[in-house]
């Protein structure tokens, strides 16, 4: 249960910090943090929670990461569903908190016809810059693949794991710097689901892509790392 609570709180913080920065700070008049600030916020949430609770649960905070670590031989299949449930509950709880805070401002309303509404992900008309379904799928697949390669490499028993959280946090920052205009950046099915639930409409109907593409990318990364990159013990 401690592992599941760690995943709950870690994913809560990721969604609250990352999506919260997009909702409240990105476009604040004259002092807004912009895309770069939002990208950094997402990276910082993972970095901080990796050191806070990573030693308890492994610090996944993302169903795609759990699948990738399973494919890489680092995580047991029996724990996949419990971890994913804990991650989704944490993400939805964070989105609910963000919605409650946002509702405290007069005139707040979620426009489900607008790209990026309530920090949701999307493609086509719901992509921040109008990218197609195919473009969104490729971006999410490739970015999640490399995210998992970085995670698997940084946490390898032969690596200097003391700095793993920094590498992983910076990787997520870079991923957001690349892809916010494309999909509003997911690479995390729980993060996408949580925001889409509160938006509804087309963003909710598009959330399937932000489960399928990241999970496929993560699984491919796991197999690539295990078969092509992972260093073996000299005795093996």
UniProtKB/TrEMBL annotation:
Motif stretch (NPA 1): 62-64
Family annotation (PROSITE patterns): MIP, PROKAR_LIPOPROTEIN
One family name in Pfam for this protein: MIP
Localisation per UniProt entry: Cell membrane
InterPro entries the record matches: Aquaporin-like, Aquaporin_transptr, Aquaporin_Z, MIP, MIP_CS
Lineage top rank: taxon: Bacteria
The keyword DNA repair belongs to this UniProt entry's keyword annotation: no
GO cellular component annotations of the record: plasma membrane
Keyword tags: Cell inner membrane, Cell membrane, Membrane, Repeat, Transmembrane, Transmembrane helix, Transport
TM regions (residue ranges): 12-28, 34-53, 80-102, 131-151, 163-182, 208-225
Main localization category: membrane
Family per record: Belongs to the MIP/aquaporin (TC 1.A.8) family.
Subunit structure as annotated in this protein's UniProt entry: Homotetramer.
Identification of the protein by name: Aquaporin Z
Annotated organism of origin: Flavobacterium pectinovorum
Underlying gene: aqpZ
């Amino acid at each position: 249960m401690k592992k599941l609570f760690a995943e709950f709180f870690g994913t809560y913080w990721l969604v609250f910090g990352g999506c919260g920065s997009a909702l409240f700070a990105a476009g604040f008049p004259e002092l807004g943090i912009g895309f770069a600030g939002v990208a950094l916020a997402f990276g910082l949430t993972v970095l901080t929670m990796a050191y806070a609770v990573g030693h308890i649960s492994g610090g996944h905070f993302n169903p795609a990461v759990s699948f990738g670590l399973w494919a890489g031989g680092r995580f047991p299949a029996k724990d996949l569903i419990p971890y994913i449930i804990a991650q989704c509950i944490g993400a939805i709880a964070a989105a609910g908190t963000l919605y409650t805070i946002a509702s405290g401002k007069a005139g707040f309303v979620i426009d489900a016809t607008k790209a990026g509404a309530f920090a949701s992900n999307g493609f086509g008309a719901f992509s921040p810059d109008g990218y197609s379904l195919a473009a969104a799928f490729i971006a999410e697949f490739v970015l999640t693949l490399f995210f998992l390669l970085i995670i698997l490499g940084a946490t390898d028993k032969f690596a200097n794991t003391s700095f793993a959280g920094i590498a992983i946090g910076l990787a997520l920052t870079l991923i957001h710097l690349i892809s916010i205009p494309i999909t509003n950046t997911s690479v995390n099915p729980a993060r996408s689901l949580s925001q889409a639930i509160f938006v509804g409409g087309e963003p909710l109907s598009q959330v399937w892509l932000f489960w399928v593409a990241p999970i496929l990318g993560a699984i491919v990364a796991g197999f690539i790392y295990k078969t092509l990159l992972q260093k073996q013990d000299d005795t093996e």
